[in-house]
Specification:
Helix content is 63%, strand content 0%. It is an all-alpha fold. Helix 12 packs antiparallel against helix 17 and helix 12 crosses helix 19. The chain is globular.
């Protein structure tokens, strides 16, 4: 091949012909020697297209100095015919254009990122306008940062977890609807059913009230330890169940069975959560701590404002949590009773006995903690378990029905 007037093009093609037969050390030595000896010819000019005139100089350096790492050029010429530098036109379809397009596409803001930002800002604006914003709501701004910095895996995360995020946001906004439900709250009905069905567990009394009375009359170390242990278990539903599902989601990137299990549980949780919200709005029920504090009186704005949480329940953590809760009269069904049941279904006994045993123990601990802390009747927990099993059973039927409708359309 005849010598070329400019080193970059000679590096681009001549070296490609020999790089497969040379060792990496020999290639680096040759490149260093040629760089020291090369002087560009005054007549050499690389024609640029309108595309690469806006390209940074670093991209030109990548293209012009990639000879030691490229494959054989696809263009063929008759032997002995010199290659004119003017024929190297970096137009659409060239390597430089492809590289620049990939970089621009990687950093382009996607529509899902815009949707996340708009939704979070609108949610915070609604909280400010209704004076219902709490300090922890401002952490939602981190979601915007995470969405803007996320790539394909981040997009998949937001889309996969969107139903669970949507439930939390909708449930949190129930605080705006609670004043409209005061007149319809059922107070005595749940109390009477609980005493008739499970009074035998507490000498004819409501188990939650008896547990509350026992903690109040025994200020020793044992009662204090039970109180704190029950609070830790009660709060753990905010972390244990999401972490278990997150673990399945991460395994789903490499294992198809875990991916299918994750999708089924997200759909089951979605059915469970939004069914519970419908029940809360249609039939609000007072928890046992409300009866402890106010008897059979229906809630009013004054009773809500002057509620003495320390007299209604034991434990500083649980008192602060209920004081800031978005809905006080969402006792039936109990999601604290439903979530551990779905966790049991996530780890079938035949596949992993250890995880199934842990989920069973956790379910029992959660049920006992909610009763001891005077948060739920036993019938609330049973209703939550029934709804969880129903959601798990209905999910495949709903999925097949949805797939059938989409395929027919």
């Amino acid at each position: 091949m005849p010598a070329l007037p400019g080193f970059p093009v000679q590096c681009l093609f001549d070296r490609c012909r020999t790089n497969l037969s040379q060792s990496p050390d020999r290639q680096r030595q040759d490149q260093s020697a040629e760089l020291r000896a090369w002087k560009p010819a005054a007549s050499v000019q690389v024609q640029k297209s309108p595309v690469n005139t806006h390209m940074p100089a670093s991209f030109e350096a990548i293209i012009l100095n990639w000879g030691g790492h490229c494959e054989q050029p696809r263009e063929t010429r008759p032997r002995g015919t010199p290659l004119a530098l003017s024929s190297i036109d970096l137009t659409q379809g060239s390597v430089e254009y492809q590289l620049s397009s990939q970089v621009l596409l990687k950093h382009r803001t996607q529509s899902w990122q815009v949707a996340v930002c708009v939704f979070v800002l609108a949610y915070l604006a609604l909280g400010v306008a209704t004076n219902s914003l709490r300090a922890y709501h401002w952490f939602m701004l981190l979601t915007i940062l995470g969405a803007l910095m996320s790539g394909e895996r981040g997009r998949r995360f937001f889309l996969d977890w969107a139903p669970l995020f949507a439930f939390w946001l909708v449930y949190d906004r129930l605080r705006l609807i609670q004043p409209l439900l005061y007149a319809r709250v059922a107070v005595d009905g749940a109390f009477l059913i609980e005493r008739a069905a499970f009074g035998w567990l507490a000498g004819g009394e409501v188990p939650a009230h008896q547990a509350h009375a026992w903690l109040g009359s025994n200020p020793g170390i044992l009662a204090s330890g039970i109180e704190w242990a029950a609070q830790v278990v009660y709060f753990s539903h905010l972390f244990v169940v999401p972490l278990a599902i997150a673990g399945i989601w991460m395994l789903g990137s490499t294992r198809q069975d875990c991916r299918a299990s994750f999708l089924r549980h997200v759909r089951a949780f979605t059915v469970l959560n939004f069914s519970a919200i419908v029940i809360y709005l249609a039939l609000p029920v007072a928890p046992p701590w409300w009866v402890t504090l106010n008897g059979m009186a229906k809630p009013t704005a004054d009773l809500i404002t002057n509620a003495n949480m320390s007299a209604a329940m034991h434990g500083a953590l649980i008192q602060g949590m209920i004081r800031n809760a978005s809905q006080w009269f969402a006792a039936v069904p109990s999601l604290h009773g439903a979530y551990p049941v779905l966790l049991l279904l996530l780890f079938p006994r035949r596949k992993n006995r250890l995880l199934f045993s842990f989920a069973a123990v956790y379910c029992c601990a959660m049920w006992v903690s909610t009763v001891v802390l005077n948060q739920h009747y036993v019938i609330d927990l049973v209703a939550g378990a029934v709804l969880a099993i129903a959601a798990w059973w209905l999910e495949p039927l709903m999925t097949r029905l949805t797939n059938r409708e989409s395929s027919s359309s």
